[in-house]
Amino acid sequence: MTVLTLESARAAGLRKDEVYRMARSGELERIGRGVYIRPGELDPTVVSLAGATAVKSAATMCLSSALVYHGLSDEIPLTTDIALPRGTRFPAGFDHVIWHSFGQSTFDVGRVAMSEYPELAVYSAERTIVDAFRIAHLEGIDLANEALRRWVRAPGSSPASLLRTAGHFPRTVTVIRQSLQVLL
User: N or C: where does the chain have the smaller number of CB atoms within 10 Å of the terminal CB?
Assistant: First the structure.
């Protein structure tokens, strides 16, 4: 996977005007301020994440985007939800990204590498379900319940591991435990 930033282009011997010319001619596609990729090189669902990761290595796919990635939602998101540790400045110019700040003490809980793109990170299905319950006041409880319902039906799902993950976010434990009792 090759994401080109103006910095990496300079290191490779390209001048800024050459990068801009390549973007105008269609050889490169601009995905963020100073961030480019060759069109069609990556699955469109990870292009924004790849660009964000090139600028901020902690960038992690989260929430609705991660639910779709794990097959826990049928939504077709127009944007990619990406989390960075709280206090980190969001990169500019990413049109198709919704940025989220997650607490530094829990940022790495459930953060895993994508199987197809090991240099990109996504939150695990368990962490994503916990996050769906954490933001239910914004997105609605139906999204969280549907994701949990699908996850429980999937082979290899472990309610104990979900509750362990929820333990890092104490406010979610009770509601997740109640939802699991209804489903199981």
Answer: C
